[in-house]
Specification:
single chain; L-arginine/glycine Amidinotransferase, Chain A; three-stranded mixed beta sheet; 22% helix; binds arginine
Amino acid sequence: MTQPHDLHGAARAPHDETRQRILMCAPDDFDVRYVINPWMEHQIGRTTPSLAREQWRNLRALVAQSAEVEQVTPAAGLPDMVFTANAGFVLGAIAVVSRFRAEQRRPEEPLFRAFFEAQGYDVAPWPEPIPFEGAGDALIDRGADVVWCGYGMRSAAEAPAALERIIGRRVIGLRLVDPRFYHLDTCFCPLARGWLMYYPPAFDDASRAAIEKIVPREKRMEIDEADAMRFACNAIDLDASVAMNDASPQLQKRLRDAGFAPALAPLSEFMKAGGSAKCLTLKLSER
Ligand code: ARG
């Protein structure tokens, strides 16, 4: 298989190969223009572009402390393209491009595909009729050798099995049952050393049982509704910090006690579209 490579590498400073690479997309045309999740209700036209830009730059600076930030060019008319977690799912040299459930986001697919191809990934064919929203719904565990795949809101029930066939790694489907937590990354966050921060009521009983079977009790950090509504689970596990929109002092302490350094980056404008820190990023270097 070919290794991902940077086509512009020659013109740039040499990459530090030990640093992660993370994809972001500037919020040039970001706004709420349609409603495809409950957070977007009553928010059409209500974002403040200058504040969104400032919040996004702040997040990018935080990410850049731990990773090389790659950027994909935003396209006019695609206000949700900033949420690069939904570009696709990356593992090693394989990229699976998302197949969006909402018509409004489907035009992002060829743009993300072109990005992955230009970066040298093997773009795996995905069964066209099955919605799958990439790393918004598919998250790699950092302890067990499994990938978790949320379904039932955006990605279809068939998505976990289809993903498993492509990547050849065990994929465990988790059924999402609360429309506020419509992507897995809004309520479930695998952290380094096998830790898991999650909001249990977002899942059905069988899915909660599946989580408990894989993740040992002492590594499960259950969060409450107030922290879930702050999108605390929508966190980016970076080398230097765990970046998130907000978290209660109690949750921040639990994270510190577990050896993590919470870093708060307010993302109010993106919350109006139903996304925050993790949604705005995609890890490109995954082994
Ligand atoms: N407005 C976007 C949507 O509903 C937000 C996507 C958030 N992305 C995520 N990975 N949770 O599709």
